[in-house]
């Protein structure tokens, strides 16, 4: 064994260390900071390759970090051939993608620093998944990948589509992960060992519980690797930036389920249930994904469904449980990682440079980007299984694994079914690979060329490098064969040994490969007929609809339960808690006392009423204060009585030798009383609602029963003590903790996890309160203009009434004056004066309206000169909002779209995956995106 006690954990920790300063570094350096972010995966890949000679020779690299040695829990790491292959994908391809990000993103993009940090954390979590040797640690890293992928998929959180896709992916992967955790517990309990290597080396005996455990574990693996019917989340996750999709959905995250199946296969592949589940779901996923890929117009969605198909293929190979299938799985695992990440990065360049990913809008890119076109064509050829690429080598090995006589399926019929399914899936793979190359780079006479920016050499370098590796492994498969043999060595041997090679002679797999190429080429050439066939086929049940139905049902049940339980009444909440306590443990205690199962200790020596008369005095004060508090109708006296009650309990703590606890309680009671005094100033003097009648009697009965139960239970538990109090152990071991105060030692050492939990609770409460405060502030900012308008309208009405009163007063005064020989002139003058007064009062009160420049008189009168409204707003309407008010023209609104890669980012948004247009040269209509 290679002893590297701290190097691998240090590499894992390096990911977190680098992730922390990335946000400010990205703000300062821009996308160039991604080069620094790529250091941890690059270091990990170099370390793994340095260990490769010893690992393929059968000596696994191990490391262990003690976590809770007393409980037998530690962070154990083990790198064997399978883990090494995964590290090549997770860290090697990851380092290339980080370099690609430096050319892909633009300086100043929103949330770029957060994206870089989370991407590094995801890389570290994925590295933990493939290297840990403990089931519980595997689950922790597993869920870390789910959480970080949620943040990555929902990177552009301003878009509802991104938020919805991220939530869907999290619910699916984390939900099935919980089922997997239950399966882990059952497997570890049955085997008596929670190490993965020990579990595989000595699996538990069969039985119904083992069957349930395997089903639960496979549910977690299928959810993570997007197996039918849980495949719907992966195409939805294509809203993520293209580098994220290339990393998560081609090289790393979706391989987690494949890794888990392959990791457990040596121990459980002989179980019939395991084999049929893995082979059945894997083959169905391969066929469904390939069929759906053929109808996609968005290049990224085409690759997404192609990834679903390839994941089914990999799960099928990983769980088959034979050496040939194991060799094929390692070859296809490496091949898929390289060719699919290269193709995703190619789509990112196309979208970045042209503003679209739609096949129906692209033409002529093969002439304008020849280097990228050649690289992408070679990668697609590897995906299609064409020689001399590594995809061909792996595909031949896969077909060899299911040749009748060597297949794990029982009987010749099962072998024929599996081999037929693989051939059909490979034909679909060839067809959608050809569709990708034609759609991205071919000249289409019915499509006009779009604007184009030539990509830089650094931008194209990443997909070219990944394609070069795929070509190199195909020309020299001996480089990957030792890794494949190292993993297959632990699987049951077949009828003959198999090694990766570009040429095995004229064999059945080679003939089947020729059939795949011919049939796949025919499907592509006849793509119009295939499209018409897909459109005429009935719509199959949609798993995503089932997901939405499930989520809607959960929300409906939650709302129904909330309406019935969350009434907003604290007495009701407390009553539910006390009633539950009485119905469950209380009923059990009563039954035990009645049947005699629980012994009642004798009164003599069972308990003492007090240790000193002072305790009796303090207890009497507490009891009297409690009764007085309950009977008090006024808020402030009740608060004082409640504080006295708290101080009385603190006194009991002092008398029992706990001065630190008493001091803490006194401080809490004092601060609480001071805060509540300020709060009570704004509340009514008396309580508004008091229980009466049956409610009051029920409250008294419930409280009395709960108090009786608690007192009786404490008495029985105290009398039933069979060992010395744990406090004695605290005293004896206090010196080892190095503290001077026993209470502090208990809080900080002996019960540190309790203290940590309390800190987490307080921190969570603080975050919740801060969120409410900030939300309230945002609401006030949004509502402020409306409130200002309402106050202004009220003030205007008041001033209008004052003007009318003034006009009436002037008119009455004029009527009282003696006639001056002018007839009705004074009356007419009074009326004019009244009108001028009204205009004067309104104009003076309103004043100029800031940027609008209008006066309230002009607003009321229709603007200068008559019936048109003033420039600032409509006639009679309120004044315009200030420039900083929400919705004002000064508000820049949403940031302009960048030439990124999410569907909404493109200059031409990609079509809905449910309604994609047909091929540019097919004018028969469009399909609905369902198989």
TrEMBL record:
Residues 621-684 form the MrpA C-terminal/MbhD domain. One of its GO terms (molecular function) is antiporter activity. Pfam families: MbhD (PF13244), MbhE (PF20501), Proton_antipo_M (PF00361), Proton_antipo_N (PF00662). Residues 133-403 form the NADH:quinone oxidoreductase/Mrp antiporter transmembrane domain. Residues 844-931 are annotated as: Disordered. The chain crosses the membrane at residues 29-49, 81-105, 112-130, 136-153, 165-186, 206-223, 230-253, 273-294, 301-321, 327-350, 371-394, 414-438, 459-480, 500-525, 572-594, 614-631, 638-655, 661-680, 700-720, 756-775. Residues 860-876 have a biased composition (Gly residues). It is a multi-pass membrane protein. One of its GO terms (biological process) is monoatomic ion transport. It is found in: Cell membrane; Membrane. It comes from the Bacteria. One of its GO terms (cellular component) is plasma membrane. Residues 71-112 form the NADH-Ubiquinone oxidoreductase (complex I) chain 5 N-terminal domain. InterPro entries: CPA3_Na-H_Antiporter_A, MrpA_C/MbhD, MrpA_C/MbhE, ND/Mrp_TM, Proton_antipo_N. Residues 700-780 form the MrpA C-terminal/MbhE domain. Keywords: Antiport, Cell membrane, Ion transport, Membrane, Transmembrane, Transmembrane helix, Transport. This is DUF4040 domain-containing protein. It comes from Streptomonospora mangrovi.
């Amino acid at each position: 064994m290679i002893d590297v006690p701290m190097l691998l954990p240090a590499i894992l920790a390096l990911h977190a260390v680098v992730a922390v300063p990335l946000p400010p570094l990205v703000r300062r350096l821009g996308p160039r900071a991604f080069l620094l972010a790529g250091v941890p995966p690059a270091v990990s890949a170099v370390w793994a390759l340095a260990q490769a000679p010893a690992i393929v020779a059968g000596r696994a690299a191990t490391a262990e970090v003690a976590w809770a040695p007393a409980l037998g829990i530690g962070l154990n790491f083990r790198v064997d051939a399978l883990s090494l292959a995964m590290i090549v994908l997770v860290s090697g391809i990851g380092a290339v993608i980080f370099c690609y990000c430096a050319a892909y993103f633009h300086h100043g993009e929103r949330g770029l620093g957060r994206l870089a940090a989370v991407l590094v954390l995801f890389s570290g979590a994925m590295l933990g998944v493939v290297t840990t040797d403990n089931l519980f640690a595997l689950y922790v890293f597993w869920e870390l990948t789910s959480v970080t992928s949620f943040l990555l998929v929902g990177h552009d959180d301003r878009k509802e589509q991104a938020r919805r896709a991220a939530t869907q992916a999290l619910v699916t992967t984390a939900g099935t992960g919980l089922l997997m955790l239950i399966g882990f517990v059952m497997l570890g309990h049955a085997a008596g060992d929670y190490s993965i290597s020990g579990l595989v080396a000595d699996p538990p005996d069969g039985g119904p519980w083992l069957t349930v455990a395997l089903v639960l574990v496979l549910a977690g693996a299928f959810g993570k690797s997007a197996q039918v019917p849980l495949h719907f989340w992966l195409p939805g996750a294509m809203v993520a930036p293209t580098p994220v999709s290339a990393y998560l959905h081609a090289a790393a995250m979706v391989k987690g389920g494949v890794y888990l199946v392959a990791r457990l296969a040596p121990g459980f592949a002989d179980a019939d249930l395991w084999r049929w589940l893995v082979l059945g779901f894997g083959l169905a996923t391969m066929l469904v994904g390939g069929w759906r890929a053929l109808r996609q117009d968005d290049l990224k969605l085409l690759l997404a469904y192609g990834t679903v198909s390839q994941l089914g293929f990999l799960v099928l190979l990983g769980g088959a449980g034979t050496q040939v299938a194991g060799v094929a799985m390692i070859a296809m695992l490496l091949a898929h990682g390289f060719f699919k990440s290269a193709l995703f990065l190619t789509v990112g360049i196309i979208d970045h440079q042209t503003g679209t990913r739609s096949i129906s809008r692209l033409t002529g890119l093969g002439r304008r980007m020849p280097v990228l076109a050649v690289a992408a064509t070679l990668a697609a050829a590897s995906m299609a299984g064409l020689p001399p690429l590594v995809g061909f080598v792996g595909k031949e090995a896969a077909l060899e694994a299911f040749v009748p006589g060597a297949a794990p399926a029982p009987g010749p019929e099962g072998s024929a079914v599996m081999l037929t399914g693989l051939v059909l899936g490979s034909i679909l793979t060839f067809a959608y690979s050809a569709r990708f190359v034609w759609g991205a780079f071919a000249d289409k006479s019915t499509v006009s060329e779009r604007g184009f920016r030539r990509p830089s050499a650094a931008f194209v370098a990443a997909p070219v490098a990944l394609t070069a590796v795929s070509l190199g492994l195909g020309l020299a498969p001996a480089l990957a064969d030792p890794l494949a043999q190292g993993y297959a060595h632990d699987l049951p041997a077949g009828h003959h040994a198999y090694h990766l090679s570009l040429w095995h002679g004229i064999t059945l797999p080679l003939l089947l490969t020729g059939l795949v190429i011919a049939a796949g080429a025919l499907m592509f050439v006849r793509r119009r007929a295939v499209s018409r066939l897909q459109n005429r086929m009935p719509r199959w049940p949609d798993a995503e609809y089932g997901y939405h139905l499930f989520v809607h049902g959960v929300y409906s049940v939650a709302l129904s339960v909330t309406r019935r339980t969350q009434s907003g009444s604290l007495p009701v909440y407390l009553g539910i808690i006390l009633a539950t306590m009485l119905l469950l443990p209380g009923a059990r205690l009563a039954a035990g006392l009645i049947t005699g199962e629980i012994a009642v200790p004798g009164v003599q020596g069972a308990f003492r009423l007090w240790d000193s008369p002072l305790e009796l005095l303090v207890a009497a004060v507490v009891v009297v204060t409690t009764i007085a508090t309950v009977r008090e109708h006024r808020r402030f006296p009740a608060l004082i009585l409640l504080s006295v009650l708290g101080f009385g309990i603190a006194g009991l703590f002092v008398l029992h030798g706990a001065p630190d606890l008493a001091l803490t309680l006194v401080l809490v009671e004092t601060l609480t009383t001071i805060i509540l005094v300020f709060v009570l100033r704004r509340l009514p003097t008396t309580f508004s609602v008091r229980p009466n009648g049956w409610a009051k009697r029920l409250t008294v009965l419930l409280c009395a029963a709960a108090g009786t139960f608690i007192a009786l239970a404490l008495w029985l538990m105290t009398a039933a003590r069979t060992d010395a109090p744990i406090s004695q152990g605290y005293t004896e071991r206090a010196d080892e903790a190095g503290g001077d105060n026993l209470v502090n030692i208990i809080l900080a050492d002996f019960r540190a996890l309790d203290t940590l939990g309390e800190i987490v609770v307080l921190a969570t409460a603080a975050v919740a309160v801060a969120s409410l405060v900030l939300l309230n502030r945002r609401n006030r900012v949004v509502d402020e203009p409306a409130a200002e308008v309402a106050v202004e309208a009220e003030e205007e009405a008041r001033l209008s009434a004052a003007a009318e009163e003034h006009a009436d007063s002037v008119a009455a005064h004029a009527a009282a004056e003696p006639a001056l020989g002018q007839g009705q002139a004074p009356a007419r003058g009074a009326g004019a004066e009244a009108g001028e007064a009204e205009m004067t009062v309104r104009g003076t009160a309103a004043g100029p309206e800031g940027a609008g420049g209008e006066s309230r008189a002009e607003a009321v009168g229709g603007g200068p000169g008559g019936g048109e409204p003033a420039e600032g707003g409509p006639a009679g309407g309120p004044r315009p909002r200030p420039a900083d008010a929400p919705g004002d023209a000064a508000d820049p609104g949403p940031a302009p779209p960048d030439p990124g890669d999410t569907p909404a980012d493109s200059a031409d948004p990609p079509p809905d995956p449910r309604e994609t247009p047909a091929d540019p040269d097919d004018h028969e209509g469009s399909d609905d995106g369902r198989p």
